[in-house]
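Is this the right way to post structure tokens for a design question? Let me know if I should format differently. Anyway, here goes:
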């Protein structure tokens, strides 16, 4: 790991100038008190959203990699205070058995070692039935994020199944069924704002208020739709930053504390804790945070999936990881510069942060 060295006093000065919440996030990353894992149980999906940046080139996590992940968790939680276990994809719940296998192992291990566990799932909501949620919650997964694109008509014009059919009714019915349970969970409904869907978003918010009746387990999050690249790049319209900010603030005034605005660079867990801190810190810049892809390769960012500079290593058969230290340092450099742009999104500047010499693909151990 890079050291601060003779510039320590200057680094401390810059750190103390940051908001208190941001200081805590930086300190936690450097002190290795916690471990953050973002795991793709599969990189396939039953949806084909019209703005998705993924190419679905990788499949389901095989059992050999599942066992390596367990060994890695077993080794890396020794001496830690907290494990953040975050499930991504593709759509993680088309491989629910993989999610439950690793999560149950992690929960038992954390209980034995006195390590706090915080588990989350980013899902499209199609498979989030009451039975599945019950199993997930019992495995220590209490936090969820589901994207919606307004009411039925607006949503179904953008978030479609692989066969082209709409998805809203199934997701909405799952939410209504979960509302009727006494399960302990928190669901962030990430509602996308884009040109022409303002009234549908307002309609959805009213439906949430009416049907979910103030259930604090459901949180409304408003987010301007972004073009994150990939196969759909340039094929849909987005709002300007000025227009999206004005609309977001107007909706927040209308719906008050029910509506949560959050930054793209902050992950689902940190969005709430960092709200009001004035500075986003991306998980990808943290030295204690890793993306484990379904084939066992190690990355840092869940968005820049197939960028060469995102391939920083791979899981080995014994549960250890091989890391390209030169490339890894480019991701964690923000912890030492404390540059706001790097802290918010170390990948945003692309080749400015990652020189051409670093763009060498890392082979995955078989």
């Amino acid at each position: 790991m890079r050291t601060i060295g003779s510039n320590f006093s200057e680094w401390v000065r810059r750190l103390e100038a940051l908001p208190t919440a941001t200081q805590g996030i930086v300190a936690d990353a450097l002190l290795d008190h916690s471990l953050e894992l973002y795991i793709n149980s599969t990189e396939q999906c039953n949806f084909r959203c019209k703005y998705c940046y993924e190419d679905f080139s990788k499949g389901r996590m095989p059992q050999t990699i599942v066992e390596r992940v367990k060994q890695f968790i077993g080794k890396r939680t020794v001496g830690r205070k907290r494990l953040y276990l975050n499930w991504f994809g593709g759509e993680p719940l088309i491989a629910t058995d993989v999610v439950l296998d690793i999560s149950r192992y992690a929960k038992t291990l954390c209980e034995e070692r006195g390590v706090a566990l915080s588990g989350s799932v980013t899902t499209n909501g199609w498979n989030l039935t009451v039975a599945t949620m019950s199993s997930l919650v019992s495995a220590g997964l209490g936090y969820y994020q589901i994207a919606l694109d307004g009411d039925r008509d607006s949503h179904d014009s953008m978030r479609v199944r692989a066969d082209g059919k709409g998805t809203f009714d199934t997701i909405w019915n799952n939410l209504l069924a979960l509302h009727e349970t006494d399960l302990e969970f928190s669901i962030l409904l990430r509602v996308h704002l884009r040109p022409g869907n303002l009234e549908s978003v307002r309609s959805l918010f009213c439906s949430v208020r009416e049907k979910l009746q103030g259930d604090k387990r459901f949180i409304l999050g408003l987010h301007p739709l972004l073009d994150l690249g990939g196969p759909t790049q340039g094929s849909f319209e987005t709002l300007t930053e000025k227009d999206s900010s004005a609309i977001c603030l107007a909706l927040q005034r209308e719906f008050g504390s029910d509506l949560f605005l959050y930054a793209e660079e902050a992950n689902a867990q940190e969005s709430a804790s960092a709200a009001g801190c004035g500075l986003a810190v991306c998980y990808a810049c943290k030295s204690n945070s890793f993306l484990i892809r379904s084939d066992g390769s190690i990355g840092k960012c869940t968005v820049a999936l197939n960028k060469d500079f995102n391939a920083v290593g791979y899981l080995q058969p014994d549960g250890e990881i091989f890391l390209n230290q030169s490339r890894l340092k480019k991701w964690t450099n923000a912890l030492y510069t404390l540059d706001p742009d790097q802290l918010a999104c170390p990948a945003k500047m692309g080749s400015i942060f990652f020189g051409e010499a670093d763009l060498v693909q890392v082979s995955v151990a078989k």
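Format looks fine. Someone answered above. Worth noting: The first strand starts at residue 34 and ends at 40. The two ends are 27 Å apart (CA to CA).
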